[in-house]
Design brief:
The protein has helices at residues 46-54, 84-94, 106-109, 116-127, 132-145, 151-155, 164-176, 194-211, 222-228, 246-251, 256-266, 302-306, and strands at 4-15, 18-30, 35-39, 61-70, 73-74, 99-102, 182-186, 214-219, 231-236, 239-245, 312-313, 319-320. By secondary structure, the chain is an alpha/beta fold. It binds iron/sulfur cluster (SF4) and magnesium ion.
Length: 335
């Protein structure tokens, strides 16, 4: 049994312009002790799919359908049949406890007027019964675990007294506090400079080894994924368009969008930041009937506009949704 198994998740947002179909029927899984990457440009649905899992969608967001099995338990609100209170109660017990999140921007997540210690022990107070002395001891351990020197002094400080890299370490310590089985890291290094980014990714890898947690790493940067993840899901236009082992994605990408992302990373003339592929993502208020990438794809064929390509399995681990990998049935080429 997988640690997390998502099937056919669809999430939408009500807006003044209409319903935005942000996540469109995605399926993915994470095993205990593995780091899985979800990669895509902003607006691809990668963060919203994980906010759906955590029950952290904004008020105008709804999970329309799908199953989310976490550690053997169904946690999709769809299964609660309108009983929002029961769903909230379940998620309050899970969030920050067996499942936790590392957010992109430490400054907006940390409370500027509370000490590091107060913020660090908060999930422990919510989920575990511990005495004041035990809480303090655990806070010291957590800072040590994430590589912050002089923890006793740091605990008394406020977020603005720490560097950006240290603040992100504190966020990671908060996420680790209750020994979660699954950690979801949403662009954890985007706000940091490059050398600190590498250190934070190293830290996440090390902690995964030590704790055996499953980790989902959400990023727009395939370079980050290369150094950390065993498997990767590529998202575009609310859909997973390719998935595979990190090596399969790097050395045998099959989807033109994946190749486009890789071309940006591999070009030594460019910095590691992804250069956007020309064109813009599809309007998810009126999602395209066919392949979401069709307007930006230089290999597009007639059929691409009309029909969504089915998922084609290329190996036990590698799958892609692109008409290029479909063998045309006799006489139907260019349909
Ligand atoms: Fe390009 Fe067609 Fe493949 Fe979509 S299905 S990525 S448009 S070739
Ligand atoms: Mg995001």
């Amino acid at each position: 049994m997988s640690l997390l198994e998502i099937k056919n998740l669809t999430t939408s947002f009500a807006t003044e312009q209409g319903k935005v179909q942000a996540v469109r029927g995605i399926s993915l899984s994470v095993e205990q002790g593995e780091i899985v990457g979800i990669v895509g440009e902003s607006g691809s649905g990668k963060s919203q799919s994980m906010y759906s899992v955590m029950g952290l969608l904004s008020e105008n967001g709804t999970i329309e359908s799908g199953s989310i099995l976490f550690d053997g338990q169904e946690i999709s609100p769809v299964q609660f049949d309108g009983n929002a209170a029961a769903y909230e109660k379940l998620m309050e017990g899970i969030r920050g406890n067996s499942m936790s999140m590392i957010f992109q921007d430490p400054m907006s997540f940390l409370n500027p007027v509370l000490t590091i210690e107060k913020q660090l022990v908060e999930p422990l107070k919510n989920h575990k019964k511990m005495s004041a002395a035990e809480l303090h001891q655990k806070a010291v351990e957590l800072l040590t675990q994430v590589g912050i020197p002089s923890p006793e002094e740091r605990l008394k400080q406020y977020p603005h007294q720490l560097s950006g890299g240290m603040r992100q370490r504190v966020i990671i310590a908060i996420a680790l506090a209750c020994n979660p089985k699954l950690i979801i890291a949403d662009e954890p290094t985007t706000a940091l400079d490059v050398t600190i980014q590498a250190k934070i990714i190293e830290l996440i890898k090390e902690l995964k080894e030590k704790t055996g947690s499953g980790v989902i790493l959400i990023t727009h940067d395939l370079g980050v994924v290369a150094s950390a993840c065993s498997r990767v899901y590529i998202m575009y236009g609310g859909k997973i368009v390719e998935t595979g082992l990190a090596d399969e994605i790097y050395y045998q990408p099959q989807h033109p969008y994946t190749s486009g992302l890789l071309a940006c990373v591999n070009n030594p003339e460019e910095d590691t930041e992804l250069r956007p592929i020309p064109g813009s993502p599809p309007d998810l208020i009126k999602p395209p009937a066919g392949c979401p990438f069709v307007d930006r794809c230089d290999k597009a064929m007639k059929i691409c506009k009309m029909k969504m390509p089915p998922e084609r399995k290329l190996s036990d681990t590698h799958a892609v949704c692109c008409w290029l990998t479909e063998k045309p049935a006799s006489g139907k080429e260019g349909e």
